[in-house]
Amino acid sequence: MNLRAKKISGLWVIIILIVMSLIAATPVQAHDDSAKSSHQEPGQSARTVTKESFPGAAKFEPQAAYNYSQSAIGKTVGHYKFISTENKIVNLNQYLGKPLVLSMVYSSCAHTCPVMTQNLMDAVKDAREALGSADFNVISVGFDTLRDTPRAMKSFAKQQAVGDANWQVLSGKPDVVERLSADTGFIYFTSPKGFDHLTQTTLIDAKGEVYAQIYGQDFEATRLTEPLKQLLLGTAKSLTSFDSLLNQVKLFCTIYDPYAGKYRFDYSFFIGMFLSAVVLLLIGSFLVKNIWRLWFKPADQHSETSNGSTI
Length: 311
Known about the structure:
Elements: H1 2-37, H2 62-70, E1 81-84, E2 89-91, E3 100-105, H3 112-131, E4 137-142, H4 150-160, E5 167-171, H5 174-184, E6 188-191, E7 194-197, E8 200-204, E9 210-215, H6 222-234, H7 242-253, E10 254-257, E11 262-265, H8 268-310
Helix pairs in contact: 3-6
């Protein structure tokens, strides 16, 4: 009986050991599964953009950040490919030939990016009224590449009431967004509140080179319109048509009225031109009349005197 009890006890010990080993193995398997689930999906960037990602502006001090941003002026922006809110591929080289306004935002931003976008919308409206709606383009690019999908950027554009034929809202891959940021001197990195970034609007000329930086989330419209005007006046345009001539005259005569707070067409230029033409015409008429009298009148008078003496 004692032998049988010992065998039964030994069997229970073996069963208990087997169960304990299975229980001990279960957490290991669960840990492996959670590790697998934390892996990023294909196409997502494993790199986190930090302050150290921007040489010369690592501490994000105002002067260092400003110097980093300004150093991009004159750089050529690469021909990067992005995705529109309609899931169509957009290549930056399609914007060559006209000035391009670039705004970098992220769709989950609660305050700064919406305020900056609304202010840019007002500035673009003024610039279009002054210079023409088709003479320059605007793009807003999402830099939070994990969340700024075409769908998210479409929602952002709808909330801000932006986007049309000359204003695209775009998404891009992580490496493409980082290279565009490097080309344009834009700084952004993760922070406890989401992202820290420059409130910067970049103006790119018709050749694809960075022309100017505009800082602040509520800058005045003139800070956008004036450099755009400089670029458009400096661009060699064909004057073979009457419309192109009118556009050049319109650019030249458009001025900012600080009292009205908007741009207007300055008619004083034409009034001055008309008065100048009248004065020149009177002076010319006076000179021609007197030159004619000095050179030709004496000869006629002499001829008449000669004929009178003969008779």
